[in-house]
Specification:
The structure holds two protein chains of two kinds. Chain A is mainly α. Chain A is built from 16 helices and four strands. Chain B has helices spanning 73-77, 86-90, 97-112, 118-146, 151-171, 193-216, 219-225, 233-239, 243-248, 255-258, 284-308, 364-369, 372-376, 381-391, 395-399, and strands at residues 2-5, 11-16, 22-26, 33-37, 49-55, 58-65, 180-181, 184-185, 330-338, 341-349, 358-362, 379-380. In chain B, strand 7 (180-181) and strand 8 (184-185) form a beta hairpin. Classes of the chains: A mainly alpha, B alpha+beta.
Chain lengths: 372, 400
């Protein structure tokens, strides 16, 4: 990691000067030539996010679905069942780690790992606040689009390695789906990149800041931006295998799709990767179209709401809130809509989303060239 | 002609001819895979096994394998007295126990040729229709799950819970009632029962519309079901289909109308059949719509029964129950309209024994399921799930 990236490391929510000094000292700590301190510093927020995604993602999903369905959801473990997921993780950790006899052991074991890595590598380029970004790549957006494709390898390894027909179906469907939907998703994100003129995630976010709050967001900067915004949102649902595009794991058709044979902690890792990806695509859509860590509140006359709610800590708050909002929408859709069929899914991708993505690309280009 | 594009396997053309035979053509010969769907599968609605021959996602052949839930109903019946068979009938179609008991009681009563008090008849119709609504709620809810919509299922179960509560209040059990006895009932209904049922009817009427709209006004649901698994009326009749399945194919056939029993002739209700405006007649959506619309008709029947019900004064629900059931030698076949179609009991008596010589149940689900092979040819795996769901099988009744 370059030294420029190093200087941007700090813990987002505790921004005292002492702490900055402390974190910089820790960042410089090397052991046997390895940047150990840097790894620890980068790992803290990422582990925090990982814990969020497993505990509060799953808990939120269960509670939101329960409220939509006239149920209470988990209520027993802790107040309002808030510790339910921790109890579940403990249960999954205690379970026997089963590898089916006829499975390809290497692929079976490596599948969840690749899936997990693929899902969490994209977190490296997400700017969580003006002061925190894992790696400030100048091709951050490009990297984020590309690295997600690694998940496909994990899914295929898991599905093929299981040596189960349902898993194979799930894996093949998943690969076809993710590879197809990356095209409209990437073109839609390109519209955002075109409006920014850069692929650097931090730069894209900074370009959307201003005293008028949400007015500066790319979504409201051009009359066409809602089109790539919607296309990316729909395509992102398919990329992370969420309803109505959850056909790779369609429980009523393929039992559980590519993770049918998984149990115990490997199953939990696949789950973790799924919730990790959900937050990742939510963060990307927030960054490219909704200003990332910028406060949406405008300054109104002497009431400087934007100034009051800006800063590194507020930044982390805003991007996580925006991410949560999109995760909520994903869950809302999941518990409302039935599932599409395989051919309908491909129809939607190639005959609806891709042409419209091209249209929005051309329109955004025209808008950017002719309207200053 | 339907063109299906399966990734990498070349183009597969599925043509449906006028006589409804299906021809599958492929550009590229690929290896077919045998896929055992079930007996442990989330959407085979129990322990049904479908052995599918698949070409990519396309099913070239699907053969149902039955018998995983076989409990020797017919053999058991030959070894117990007539009244002791009633609890067994509950376990045939366990989602509509009242209707099965009703059909069995009608059969033995016809064999005995006994007169039933009018209040008993009305109570029987009320509990049977309540059970029909509960059964259709399960059918609609699980159909939503089959297609990936989880929430309607829980909405359906919320309302089914009220019905089960009412039936539990009357009979003491939630699913396996043993309430309708030969010649009468186990008990009279509790004093406030009819009032509560009336309240339920007022509560459920708007809910039934809401539940119907939740799925049938959903674009994805309609796209997944319209034109899928089309069964023409003549083929359906040849297969011996009955109930909502046959009505879904556009045949106005309801045993409560066409071969009336009990007090149904006195009651005013419609037999809903699809008109082809919302759906293609005979497809999965038509069958779903028939079930959704039938709930309203059942509500109408219940309302009329409450209004026409004779008073409970001096009423003994067991007054017509024979002390000893030993029918004259003979045989009888009685059929009744169950939520899943025609449930018939063929009973043979030798005139000496208190046990039937032969008791055969004609199961609606079993007959409806027999068309599976025809319906599944050339369908995609998700469509197969949609078709099984629309048949609405209860394996307890298929295997018996």
């Amino acid at each position: 990691m370059s030294s420029t990236a190093l200087s941007q490391f700090s813990i987002p929510f505790l921004m005292g000067n002492n702490l900055n000094a402390w974190s910089e000292a820790l960042a410089g700590f090397n052991l046997l030539g390895l940047p150990l301190g840097l790894v620890i510093l980068a790992a803290i927020p990422l582990v925090f996010i990982a814990l969020y995604s497993l505990t509060y993602g799953v808990y939120g999903e269960r509670k939101i679905s329960a409220f939509m369905q006239d149920r209470l959801g988990p209520m027993e473990v802790g107040k309002w069942g808030i510790l339910q997921t921790i109890a579940d993780i403990l249960k999954l950790l205690q379970k026997e780690d089963i590898v089916p006899t006829s499975a390809d052991k290497f692929l079976f074991v490596i599948g969840p790992g690749v899936l997990f890595v693929g899902s969490f590598l994209a977190y490296a380029v997400l700017p969580f606040s003006s002061a925190f970004i894992g790696a400030s790549l100048n091709v951050g957006l490009f990297y984020a689009i590309g690295i997600v494709a690694l998940e496909v390898v994990g899914i295929l390894a898991a599905g093929w390695g299981s040596n189960n027909k349902w898993s194979l179906y799930g894996a093949v469907r998943s690969v076809a789906q993710i590879v197809s939907y990356e095209i409209p998703a990437a073109i839609a994100l390109l519209c955002g990149a075109m409006m920014a003129g850069t692929l650097d995630m931090q730069q894209i976010t900074i370009l959307q800041s201003g005293s008028l709050g949400f007015v500066h967001f790319f979504l409201f900067q051009s009359p066409i931006a809602w089109l790539p915004f919607l296309i990316y949102f729909i395509a992102s649902l398919a990329e992370v295998n969420r309803a109505p595009f959850d056909i790779p794991e369609a429980e009523s058709e393929l039992v559980a799709g590519y993770f049918t044979e998984y149990s115990g902690m490997k199953f939990a890792v696949i789950f973790l990767a799924e919730y990790g990806s959900m937050f990742m695509v939510s963060a990307i859509i927030s960054i490219v179209f909704l200003g990332g860590w910028n406060s949406p509140l405008p300054n109104i006359g002497s009431l400087a709401l934007n100034d009051m709610t800006s800063g590194p800590v507020w930044g982390a708050f805003w991007i996580i809130m925006k991410g949560f909002f999109f995760i909520f929408v994903q869950m809302w859709l999941r518990w409302t809509l039935p599932r599409l069929r395989v051919d309908q899914l491909m129809y939607l991708c190639w005959k609806v989303l891709t042409p419209f993505a091209f249209v929005s690309f051309v329109l955004t280009a025209i808008w950017e060239v002719y309207v200053p | 002609m339907q063109e299906l594009d399966t990734a990498g396997l070349g183009s597969i053309r599925v043509t449906r001819k006028n006589d409804h035979t299906v021809v599958i053509e492929k550009d590229l010969a690929t290896e077919q895979m045998v896929l055992a769907m079930g007996p442990q599968h989330p959407s085979t609605h129990g322990v049904l096994k479908l052995e599918c021959l698949t070409d990519g996602e396309v099913i070239t052949e699907a053969e149902p394998f039955l018998g995983y839930l076989h409990r020797c109903f017919e053999k058991c019946c030959e070894n117990v007295d007539y009244p002791a068979i009633v609890p067994y009938t509950d376990r045939l179609d366990y989602l509509s126990g009242m209707n099965s008991e009703f059909a069995y009681a009608l059969a033995v009563e016809k064999l005995l040729d006994i007169e039933i008090p009018r209040r008993v008849e009305f109570i029987r119709v009320i509990v049977a229709e309540l059970n029909r609504i509960a059964s259709h709620l399960v059918a609609i809810g699980t159909y939503g799950i089959d297609l990936g919509a989880f929430t309607p299922f829980l909405f359906c179960f919320r309302d089914r819970e009220i019905i089960l509560g009412l039936l539990e209040w009357a009979s003491g059990a939630r699913m396996l009632y043993n309430y309708i006895w030969i010649g009468g009932l186990a008990y009279d209904v509790p004093s406030d029962f009819l009032k509560r049922v009336g309240e339920f009817v007022t509560y459920f009427r708007p809910k039934a519309v809401e539940l119907c709209n939740l799925l049938t006004k959903n674009e994805i649901f309609v796209k997944r079901t319209i034109g899928i698994g089309i069964m023409p009326a003549d083929v359906a009749i040849n297969y011996g289909w009955s109930g909502p399945m046959l009505r879904g194919s556009g045949v106005k056939w309801d045993l409560r109308r066409n071969d009336p029993y009990s007090v149904y002739p006195e009651l005013d209700f419609n037999v809903p059949v699809p008109d082809g405006k919302l759906s293609v007649v005979g497809d999965c959506l038509s069958r779903h719509l028939v079930r959704a619309l039938e709930m309203e008709e059942s509500l109408k029947i219940i309302e009329q029964c409450i209004a026409k019900m004779p008073s409970a004064e001096g009423f003994n629900p067991r007054s017509a129950i024979p002390k000893r059931i030993r029918p004259k030698a003979g045989e009888v076949y009685v059929r009744a309209e169950n939520p899943r179609g025609e449930l018939g009991f063929y009973i043979q008596s030798d005139g000496k024994s208190t046990k039937p010589l032969r008791c055969k149940a004609r199961s609606s689900c079993f007959v409806n399921l027999s068309a599976m092979k025809d319906l599944s040819k050339g369908q995609l795996i998700p469509d197969l799930v949609a078709i099984i769901g629309s048949i609405d099988i209860v394996l307890g009744e298929v295997d018996r």
